[in-house]
Design a protein that fits this description.
about 140 residues, mainly alpha, Four Helix Bundle (Hemerythrin (Met), subunit A)
Amino acid sequence: MENKRVATWLDDAKRWLAMSRSAEKDKFYDKGLYCLEMSMESAIKALFTGSDIEFPKTHNMTHLILLNKDSLPLPIKRDSEELIDVFSALLESRNASGYKAESSFTDIEFKKKLDRYMPRSEKLIKEIEDSLNKPL
């Protein structure tokens, strides 16, 4: 396991999550959703790095979660369907939330998605961090 890279990915995940919360507080729901997707992506990359699973430079980690499910720590393996569901939904909103001017989403739709996926993402990120901090 590459501890420095894992720590960097986890730090990125936490900072993206903090920016998502801040954007939500300021009612910038599109940017909050974008930051939430980046937070989950960074957490998944921390998980893969800490599990010695190689991954290409990509935003879409969904298929890699499916392919490597058996190599993930037990708590994450148990919640892999939840991880896939949350990350897939956030990834689908990535372009709309990153480029609001080109999106047909309304602020209300961004807020609903953020309200739905924020608590689930926070839980998953915590589980990922906890699983990486346990001895292998």
